[in-house]
């Protein structure tokens, strides 16, 4: 318990969240240069969708294995390794001269990114008391949104200054430096008993065979409900802004890249507000399901509004809709609050990984599906507005799935 009262825990907190901030920015930063990549590498929108989607595919496929490994061996090594691998992948992205290199770099980045959330949760749970941890989860979710915010106007300006290759190279080096910082903070300078306590907890969590735990979770309605909840609110937002949000502003509204980035910032502001505010509301009224239903309905109606406006709302409504969609993404932190209430602590890593898989599975599917629709409809009609109109059907369907998930979720009011 001594480490949970030490000032050093705040060094851990700042170091881990700084790393998360930079790593999260790499989920969406490539979306700033989608049109440049298409010109420089002479590739189609479908190829861009595949390059973007592979990162989220790798991230998604590793969530459950990462939860198992983190529970068994402890989170420190995997978080450090993930930061270094993300940095290396970003550096490769900056020096690539062929689309294959871009594809490979996003695979490396996806593997590194897959380490961050589950391991960060376990590290913070080990260093902070339960009451502190509940509050800090909201800050952690907000940090991810700040990472997306970093990948808008600030990184767009950095691209204008250094060029896209120089900007991504410098960011890759900075993420590698964070990996070294984590080694110093979490291993070299950490209290010796910290890791021992973590390993003891991991051993206790392995009393039941891992295969039995996974099988039980996969057959649990509650776990699947949380999977679908996360699927509905995360993928539409993350998948869209990581690939097509900036081109959407440029193509349909004649914006510059910087102006389109500012438009997307509205959604990020919504996400930053949504994470702590909805967690506070859920805590205040001692209910997760009711506020989460409101969130899912709001996200569904926001995406559906793009269809009502034939794919091109006025700028005012674009601002309103992106704010609401971003707010819904921030509120997806409720998924992990529900995990803590619904499952024993020793299973929370695996269940969190399973729920997170749902969110980023949709982030894998959306860029690929939307890119294919844009290519086919534009080729057939020659009209970009029609192409985006039909493309918006994808996040509408995803949002319906999310609403089904939250309706299936069974409220559990007691805390573990």
Descriptive report:
This protein has 20 helices and no strands. α14 crosses α16 (315-330). The chain is mostly helical. Mean pLDDT is 83; it is low at 198-202. The radius of gyration is 21 Å and the shape is globular.
Number of helices: 20
Q: By helix and strand content, what is the structural category?
A: mainly alpha
Relative strand content: under 5%
End-to-end Cα distance, whole Å, is 19 Å
**Silhouette:** globular
Q: Calculate Rg over CA atoms.
A: 21 Å
What is the residue-mean pLDDT, rounded to a whole number?
A: 83
Query: SSE order, as H and E?
Result: HHHHHHHHHHHHHHHHHHHH
* Biggest sheet character: none
Helix content: over 70%
Which consecutive residue ranges, at least 5 long each, have pLDDT under 50?
198-202
The total strand number stands at: 0
List the helices and strands and how they pair.
Elements: H1 8-28, H2 34-40, H3 45-61, H4 63-73, H5 76-95, H6 99-113, H7 116-127, H8 130-150, H9 153-188, H10 192-205, H11 210-218, H12 221-241, H13 245-253, H14 257-285, H15 289-308, H16 315-330, H17 334-342, H18 348-381, H19 384-391, H20 393-408
Features:
mainly alpha; single chain; globular; 416 residues; 83% helix
């Amino acid at each position: 318990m001594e480490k949970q009262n030490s000032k050093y825990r705040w060094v851990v907190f700042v170091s881990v969240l700084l790393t998360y901030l930079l790593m999260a920015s790499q989920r969406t930063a490539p979306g700033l240069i989608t049109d440049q990549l298409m010109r420089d590498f002479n590739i189609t929108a479908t190829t861009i969708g595949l390059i973007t989607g592979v990162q989220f595919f790798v991230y998604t496929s590793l969530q459950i294995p990462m939860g198992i490994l983190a529970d068994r061996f402890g989170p420190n090594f995997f978080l450090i390794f993930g930061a270094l691998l993300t940095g290396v992948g970003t550096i490769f992205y900056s020096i690539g001269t062929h689309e294959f290199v871009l594809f490979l770099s996003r695979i490396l980045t996806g593997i590194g990114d897959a380490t961050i959330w589950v391991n960060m949760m376990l590290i913070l749970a080990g260093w902070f008391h339960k009451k502190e941890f509940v509050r800090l989860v909201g800050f952690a979710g907000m940090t991810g949104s700040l990472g997306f915010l970093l990948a808008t106007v600030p990184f767009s300006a950095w691209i204008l200054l250094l060029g896209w290759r120089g900007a991504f190279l410098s960011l890759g080096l900075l993420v590698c430096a964070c990996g070294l910082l984590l080694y110093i903070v979490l291993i070299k300078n950490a209290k010796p008993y910290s890791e021992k306590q973590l390993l003891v907890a991991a051993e206790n969590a392995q009393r039941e065979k891992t295969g039995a735990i996974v099988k039980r979770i996969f057959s649990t309605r509650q776990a699947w409900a949380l999977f679908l909840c996360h699927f509905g609110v995360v993928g539409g937002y993350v998948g869209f802004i990581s690939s097509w949000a900036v081109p959407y502003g440029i193509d349909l509204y004649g914006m510059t890249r910087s102006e389109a980035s500012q438009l997307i910032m509205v959604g990020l502001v919504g996400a930053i507000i949504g994470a702590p505010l909805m967690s506070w509301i859920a805590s205040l009224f001692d209910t997760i399901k009711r506020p989460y239903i409101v969130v899912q309905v709001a996200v569904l109606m926001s995406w559906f509004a793009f269809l009502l406006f034939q794919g091109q709302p006025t700028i005012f409504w674009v601002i309103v809709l992106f704010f609401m969609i971003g707010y819904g993404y921030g509120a997806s932190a409720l998924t992990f609050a529900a995990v803590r209430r619904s499952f024993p602590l020793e299973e929370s890593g695996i269940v969190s990984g399973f729920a997170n898989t749902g969110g980023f599975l949709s982030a894998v599917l959306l860029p690929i599906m939307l890119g294919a629709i844009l290519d086919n409809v534009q080729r057939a009609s020659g009209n970009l507005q029609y192409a985006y109109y039909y493309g918006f059907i994808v996040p509408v369907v995803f949002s319906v799935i999310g609403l089904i998930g939250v309706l299936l979720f069974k409220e559990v009011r007691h805390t573990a």
